[in-house]
Amino acid sequence: MTNQFPIFHDRRTSDTPATAHPMRGAGARRRFLIGTLLVNLAALSIDFAVLDAPHLAFAVGLRLLLVTPLVLLALVLNRRPDDRAMQSAVQATAVVAFALSVTAIGQFAPEPFAGRYMMAALFVVFAGALVSALSWPATKIMTVTATVLYIVITISGLRWPPAWTNIDLVGLSLITCVIALRARKRKDTQIAELEAIRRSDAQLKRDLRQANAALERLSATDPLTGAFNRRYLDDLIEQEAASIVPSLGQGVLMIDVDHFKLFNDYGGHAAGDRCLRRIVAAIRRNLRACDVLVRYGGEEFAVVLPGLDDAELYETAERLCRAVSALKIPHPGLGEAGIVTISVGIAPAVPAETLADAIQRADQSLYRAKRGGRNRVSA
């Protein structure tokens, strides 16, 4: 079989849809964890400024011995995709610990800093839900857990018996929890819709590319026989002429179906079409993948065979003649014993010769084969 449409290629473009790739999620989680670590450490300067010595030691212990190790552990696990469940659990725990450490420190800070610590803790809960890049189930568990523990610390004041203070912050924390989860859910929905649009757009581009390739193939193909048409051959000639690389020459065969007009006159054009299709199929079976078969005219075909020497080219032409004769297609205009045959003209490859010149030489050889009695090869 010949290599169909060798000049057409499926040009892949970078239009694959942007999906929730694991590495993209890992990058977002890593950025969130680094931001959390930096904010946690930077907050130490505020602790030093507003807390007394015993409570400062408590704050430093929470930040450096609880929050920081959890965040660093989450960063380490973030580099190991196989431990995604463990990484999510540790990251969620780090966010909860960060929010609760700020809440706990706020219980001992003087006003007006105590209120600011409490609001900062709610901001940590909100930011963790919205930008932590955890899965939706993990985000829900993290946010609800942080909110419940925030309420417990706020109401009790970390005292026993509980102080039952700051009841107003309970309602604010519940509102923050609901808003944070709804915002995260809406964000996930918007991202999913955007990814669906991108996937659809990518699919449309692939379909369009395939349709264009199919259209190009159709425009270069003879619809009756499936061989290439003259337009394709003209493109090959133009490409060769435009190339700056010196041509090594290509062997060309010109093939003509003997007495084909007589076949159509006696057998009809429908039978003639079936005959041509069978001849083309037989020729293809005896060509290489790199050879190019072109329907040059009504019953005339050109074959471009690169890389063959004179003997190989002649042997190929003889093989094609035998293959068509072996079909034993009855020729209605030549009597009962008449069968369809072909004549072949050969133009061996000549270095620096153009493809157009080789075709012209092959056509002259074909003329000599037909004058010599047909059903033969002439060089």
From TrEMBL:
PROSITE patterns in the cross-refs: GGDEF
GO biological process terms, semicolon-separated: cell adhesion involved in single-species biofilm formation; negative regulation of bacterial-type flagellum-dependent cell motility
Enzyme class: transferase
Domain of life of the organism encoding this protein: Bacteria
SMART domains: GGDEF
An example molecular function term from Gene Ontology annotations: diguanylate cyclase activity
Keywords recorded for this protein, A-Z: Coiled coil, Membrane, Transmembrane, Transmembrane helix
Swiss-Prot/TrEMBL catalytic activity: 2 GTP = 3',3'-c-di-GMP + 2 diphosphate
EC number in record: 2.7.7.65
GO cellular component, one term: plasma membrane
Pfam family, one: GGDEF
Record field: transmembrane: 32-50, 56-77, 89-109, 115-134, 141-158, 164-181
Coiled coil segments of this chain: 194-221
Entries under InterPro entries matching the protein: Diguanylate_Cyclase, GGDEF_dom, Nucleotide_cyclase, Rev_trsase/Diguanyl_cyclase
Organism: Rhodopseudomonas pentothenatexigens
Ranges for domain GGDEF: 248-379
Entry keyword annotation includes Nucleotide-binding: no
Descriptive protein name: diguanylate cyclase
